[in-house]
Amino acid sequence: MIYTVTLNPALDYILYTEEFVLGRTNRSVKETLYYGGKGINVSAVLTELGVECTALGFIAGFTGNELKRLVKENGLQTDFIPLKKGATRINIKLKGTEETEINAQGPAIDDTDLQLLFQKLDKMKEGDTLVLAGSVPPTLPQDIYEQIAERLGGKGIRLAVDAAGELLKSVLPHRPFLIKPNKQELEGLAGRHLSTEAEIAAAAKELQQMGAEYVLVSLGAEGALLLDQNGYIKKPAFTGTAINTVGAGDSMVAGFLAGIDHGKEYALKLGIAAGCATAFSERLASKEEIFALFAKKV
Description:
Blueprint (H helix, E strand, L loop, with lengths): L1 E5 L3 E7 L13 E7 L1 H11 L4 E8 H13 L3 E2 L2 E3 L5 E7 L3 E4 L8 H11 L7 E5 L10 H9 L5 E5 L2 H5 L8 E2 L3 H8 L6 H13 L4 E5 L5 E5 L2 E5 L12 H12 L4 H16 L7 H8 L4
Parallel strand pairs: 1-4, 1-9, 2-7, 4-5, 4-6, 9-10, 10-11, 11-12
Antiparallel strand pairs: 2-3, 7-8, 12-13, 13-14
Helix pairs in contact: 1-8, 6-7, 8-9, 9-10
């Protein structure tokens, strides 16, 4: 079983405008409402690919109830923890000639709530996979990923982490199965600009030597690079028109995890196909869209 944790999920309210002028009344031409959160996105694509998965996290208020309804409507299995106060955040995304986002802070999560999450994680079994994805809300300890990694250490649980900076670096001593920085995040961890494939591979190797089994570096239109103790492989992206890159990295994580039992080259190609298929869609890609790309040569 694969579990994902989204500590601060959201409803994404997307407004499409012909133009947006600050300080004036603007009118939309179309609106959509989606569930959001990196871990939930991973769960959605895994579910689409036929992989059994449960989404964990915190929800609150009427917006939390709507998020839960939306994810269940889309076939996701969830085990969310309802908070007694506050409301699940709504993120505003304005799409016009330019794109503007306003991300809300989200509800407060106290230690009692956190202990409930720990209790759920303690029920995981050897061979299970846990995906930690996204940022940490300000009301939680900023070393929460490290706490979770330490708590699950030695239990035979595969840990996949998609986060930035110290949040990612802190879990490396606990030997995560997979980490997925993008190029910018890898540069931040390496402390230097990375121009060539060899430089990217060298920086990924540094993270691998710090504890990660697989380092999957998403490179946008250039595809992705995967490194383990035996070296690295790189595959290009599939060709297509990028419509919406939100969730593309999450889709790559899902594709990789869905394919890893078939070998790392298969997993890398499936991860890239999933990421590209989402980028070429208005929302998270379908199984049909992913495998239509996967069937092509790159």
